[in-house]
Amino acid sequence: MDLLLQFQRILESDPLIDEVGFVHPTQFATLAEDSTGDAAISDGTTFWCRDHKLGVSTQAVLPLYNEAKRAFIAAMEEYKRLGDGDDGLESEVMKHSKALLLLSSDFGTAWNSRKLVVSKKQQLSMYMGELLFSALVLSCSPKSDQAWSHRRWVIKSITGKCSALQEILGKESELVEKIAERSKMNYRAWNHRCWLVSYMTREQVLHELKKSRNWAGLHVADNCCFHYRRRLILRILKDSKLENASPGYSAEVSEVWKALWLHRRFLSLCWMKQFATNLHDVSCHFELKISTSNSFNSFIDNELHLLNSCSTVPNNDFEDFQAQATYSATYILWLTKQIPEFWSEFQEKLTIGNLKTMLSKVCPERSFLWDSLID
């Protein structure tokens, strides 16, 4: 039996396969020994399938790809020649494109052929099938641009036609998180998750903001999650008034460390812009302006308290302490430039000489810059 036919029969025999991986031939014996429970489908050298997981020998990938490509091109030529409406030809195109894309996930023509067939049928079940199939492709190619793009095409196509759209969006977000656990710094996956935000309800956005906080805390070095949180916050700001948005902001800017300083600048800037709107809006009630001014003073106090807690540099010159002191001091310096109308507040509560001294101590090579900025 040729490789392609064998591969396709395995895929058809288990429509619930949710993961594909490429295995070195020497690992097949180990897979056979570890198999327990349901019997595995295996020829011992090329394919292994059990518990809806499919393994393909790395030695078979190239010949299998060549066969799948030839079969797909032949099916597409026949489909174009005979025209639309032939279910048998459409089935052949879908079958061969499936095999080809599992082996070469960014084969754009194969993805386009699937779009062509599905869009002509306009059946919701086929769109759902494309979500399942592209998830299978992502199991072995998590950074495939074409696979993520295909999912966005499906969601656009079913918007307004599917009553379960919000449930689908929730599962999409979970898929990205699952893939992000295995594929670090996967910008394509997180970009897809950011794209989903525009389709979410307000309740979903708030839920995602809360849920992503835990993930961000466990993956500090992966800044993709922080970009996602920014997208969520911007959506909240767009849809909400200040009194609805500020509690989330207070929680978001409560603590910060190391790599989170730039994220804190973003949050503080948005927070200040919201308050500044009230401070300069002549239509605002006097009580609201007083409340806003008090909140701003409290904000400044909290940021200066953060500066004090981060500015202690022990005598051992440990680099982390020095970096933290530099980040906190430059953050306060940046803050004074963003709200010059509150400069007097800073002068009363902060000794500029101390800030300048600290910056010069922890980062002496930039002392000229500190002199020019702190005048």
Task: Report on this structure.
There is one protein chain. With 375 residues, the protein is mainly alpha-helical. Among the domains are: 1-158, no CATH class; 275-375. It has helices at residues 3-13, 28-34, 61-82, 87-103, 108-121, 124-140, 145-158, 165-182, 187-196, 202-218, 224-239, 242-252, 261-280, 286-310, 319-338, 343-349, 352-362, 367-373, and strands spanning 19-23, 41-42, 47-50, 53-57. It has a 4-stranded mixed β-sheet with strand order 1-4-3-2. Helix 7 (145-158) packs parallel to helix 9 (187-196). The longest helix is centred in the C-terminal third of the chain and has 25 residues, at 286-310.
Brief write-up:
By secondary structure, the chain is mainly alpha-helical.
Question: What would the keywords be for this entry?
Answer:
mainly alpha, 375 residues, 4 strands, 4-stranded mixed beta sheet
Q: End-to-end span in angstroms? A: 81 Å
Order of strands in the sheet with the most strands? 1-4-3-2
SSE series:
HEHEEEHHHHHHHHHHHHHHHH
Classification by helices and strands: mainly alpha
Count of individual helical segments: 18
Query: Could you report the average pLDDT, rounded to the nearest whole number?
Result: 80
How helix-rich are the residues, as a percent range?
Answer: over 70%
Topology:
Elements: H1 3-13, E1 19-23, H2 28-34, E2 41-42, E3 47-50, E4 53-57, H3 61-82, H4 87-103, H5 108-121, H6 124-140, H7 145-158, H8 165-182, H9 187-196, H10 202-218, H11 224-239, H12 242-252, H13 261-280, H14 286-310, H15 319-338, H16 343-349, H17 352-362, H18 367-373
Helix pairs in contact: 3-4, 4-5, 5-7, 6-7, 7-9, 8-9, 9-11, 10-11, 12-13, 13-14, 14-15, 15-17
